[in-house]
Amino acid sequence: MRPENYEARKHPPSNEFELNFGPNHPGIEGNYAFKVKLNGDEVLEAKADAGYLHRGFEKLMEGRLWIQNIALVPRICVPDPVPMEVCYSLAIEEIAGLEVPERAQWIRVMQLEMSRLAAHLFAFGGHAATCGMYTTMFWGVADRDLILDRFEELTGGRVYSIYNIPGGVRRDVPTGFLERLGSLLDYLESRLPDYDNLFFTNQIFIRRARDVGVMSQEQALKWGVTGPNLRATGLAFDVRRDDPYLVYDQIDFDIPTEPGGDCLSRNLVRRSELLQSIRILRQVIERLPSIKGPIRCPIPNPLAWNVPVGESYPRVESSKGELAYYVVSNGGDKPYRVHVRGPSSMHAVQVLEKLAVGSRLEDIAQIMFSLDACPPEVDR
Amino acid sequence: MSKNKTLTKKDQMQQDKAQDGQQMLVDFTRPRTNPMANVFDGLVRFCQSRSMFMLHYCTGCGAIELPPAMTSRFDMERLGIQPMVTPRQADILLITGYVSVKTLKRIILTYEQMAAPKYVIGICSCTVNGGMYWQSYATAKVLREYLPVDIYIAGCMPRPEAIIEGLQVLMDDIKTGRAENWKRYFQNYDYYLGNQQKLFGDHWQTPTDIISEARHYDLITENTLGKHTALLEKHQAPLQALEMTLQQNRERV
Ligand code: SF4
User: Fold this and answer.
1) pTM here?
2) Within a domain: residue A1?
3) From the CB of B98, is ligand 1 less than 6 Å away?
4) Does the pLDDT at position A102 exceed 50?
5) What is the pLDDT of residues A59-96, one digit of tens each?
6) B22 belongs to a structural domain
7) Are B197 and B144 part of one and the same domain?
8) Does A62 touch chain B if contact means CB atoms closer than 8 Å?
C-alpha cells in the first residue's frame, strides 16, 4: 500500500552523476566553480558558476571621481593589471581631448609589454601545474617575480602600480632602469631553452595537451574569442597591429599563430609571444632615451575635474585578449557609465562550457588554464 | 599603498572589546594540575606550530601574492607551511582579500568542516574593514564579525614578506598557546550566527552541528546559546535526513 500522495522519485541514470568542481579546488584558476555532469570521467555537460568575486565594479565606478577610479580599475584583472589602467586612461583622454606626450606613450608600451611577459609566465606556469609539472610553475613564478621587481622600481608597487593617469604617467623612468631592464630581458631569453626542455617539448605535456579542448576558427570567431586563444586557431588578429594604439605602429613585431586550436597550440602561442614582447621591449629601450619631453600633459585639478560630455570605446590587447572600456561622461566629475568588455568573460563562461563537453574530468583544469581565464574579470 | 602592518591577536582583542560590547571574552587558560601535562602541552604546541597545512582557497585578489610566497623565491615551506586541498586536513584558513557574500557562505562552510585547532588569517585590508570596496553592495566588510580571526595582515596587497611575517607571528602564538581563537567560535557562537543570519537570512543553516560540537569540546558558555541559536533551532531541519532538509529548503524558497 502506498500513500495517496506518493510520487516515485525520478532518478537520473545510475552511470551519470553531478559533481561540483570548485570553488575550493586547486585545479580552478581563482575563485570560480563548475557544475559538471559526468558519465564515468567523461564530461556530458558543464555549467559555469561564477559570481564568487563579484564586487559591482561598474556601479562602484559611478560613485567615485574620475581620478579615484584609476586605483580601482587594476583590481579587475589581477594577473595582468596594467592594460586596465592604460585602457581607462585612453578612454578619458579621448573624451577630454588630451594629447599624451610621446615619451609617456613609450613608457606605457614598456609597461604593457612587461605586464604581458609576467602574465604569460604565470599562465603557462599554472598550466604546467595542472599537468603535474610543478617545477615549471616554480620557475615561472620566480621569473615573474624579477619582472615585478622592475615594476616596483618603476612604479612603487609590485602588482598594482596605479602609475598611468589620464594625460600620461606619474613619474619618469629612474636612472639606470633601462639597463637593468635590458639585462633582465637577456636573462629571460636565456631561460627560454630551459623552459622548452622542461615544458614545451616535454612529452608529458604534449601528450596531455594535444587535441584537448579543440576549437575551430569559425567557432572561435562566433564565440567572441580574442587574444592568444584566437591566434592559436590560426587567425593572425592582434589589436596592437590591426587597430594600433599608443606607438605600436612605430614598432616592429610579428604576430605568432598556431594552427591547432587546442591546449598545446594556445601554450605555444604564448611562448612565441614572450619572444615578441622581449623584442618590443628591446626597441623601447633603444628608442626611449632619444625621446625627450614631458611625461604627462597638464590636466585640470583632478579633484574637481568635469570631463566634457562624450563617450568613447578604446580597446587594447591585454595578455588574455581584447580588452575595451566603454566610458560615458555627462559632464560631471564622475563617470556616468563605465562598461568593461573583458576577454575572460567570454573565455571562462561560454567557451569553457562548450570545450569541456566531451573531454575528461581531469582535463577541465587544463582547458581553463590554457584559455588563461581570469575569474575576477569575469565577475567584476 | 604598500604599507604593511601585522596586527597581533592582542591588538585585535582590544579592538574587539572596544567595538562589540556584547561579545564577552572568555579566559581560555584552564590550569592543569599535573605539572607533566604542561611540558607535554608545550611539546605538542611546538610540533603544531612547525607543521601547518594551509587551505588552498583563493578568495580575492590578495591571492596573487601567495604563489611567490609559496614558491622558490620566498619559500613558505621553510617554515613547515604547505598548501593542502581538503579542509578536513588543513589547519590554516587564509582569507586572501575581499569576500563577497556568496564566497562568505562557502568560507563558513569550509571553516566549520576543518578540524580543531584551526586558525584564520585575514590577508589584505579588505578583510579588516572593507578596503577599496567599502561601499560595494556585494561584499561582506568586516571578516571578524563572521569568523574568529587570529591574525590580520593589512596592506593592499601585502607583500610576500609581510605574509611570511604574519605566519611567523601565528607560529609564535601557537607555540605560546595564545592562538586559541577557534574556541571563541564555540564560546560565542550566538554572536557569529547572529551576524551570519543578518547577512544570509533567518533560514541560514550549515550541515555542521556547532552546538553539539561545543558540548563535545566542553566549550559551552552563556554566549554559545542565545536568541539566534533559538532561531536556528526553530528553522533547523533535522540533520539526520539530509535529503528531507534539502526538500524543505526548496519549498521555503
Ligand atoms: S586589500 Fe587590495 S589587494 Fe587585497 S583584496 Fe582588497 S583590493 Fe585586493
Assistant:
1) 0.81
2) no
3) yes
4) yes
5) 888 888 888 888 888 888 888 889 989 999 999 988 98
6) no
7) no
8) no
SS (H, E, C) chain B: CCCCEEECHHHHHHHHHHHCCCCCCCCCCCCCCCHHHHHHHHHHHHHHHHCEEEECCCCCHHHHHHHHHHCCCCCHHHHCEEEECCHHHCCEEEEECCEEHHHHHHHHHHHHHCCCCCEEEEECHHHHHCHHHCCCCCEECCHHHCCCCCEEEECCCCCHHHHHHHHHHHHHHHHCCCCCHHHHHHHCHHHHHHHHHHHHCCCCCCCCCHHHHHHHHCCCCCCCCCHHHHHHHHHCCCCCCHHHHHHHHHHHC
- The pLDDT of residue A240 is 86
Best to test chain A binding among B56, B73, B82, B243 (most A CBs inside 10 Å): B73
- Is position B249 within any domain? no
Residues B73 and B97 in one domain: yes
Query: Based on the structure, what is the number of domains in chain B?
Result: 2
* Structural domain for B204, as ranges: 180-233
How many Å lie between the centroid of ligand 1 and the Cα of residue B199?
Answer: 22
* pLDDT above 80 for A213: yes
Higher pLDDT, A353 or B23: A353
- The CATH number given to whatever domain includes residue A181 is 1.10.645.10
Partners of A127 on chain B (C-beta within 8 Å) are none
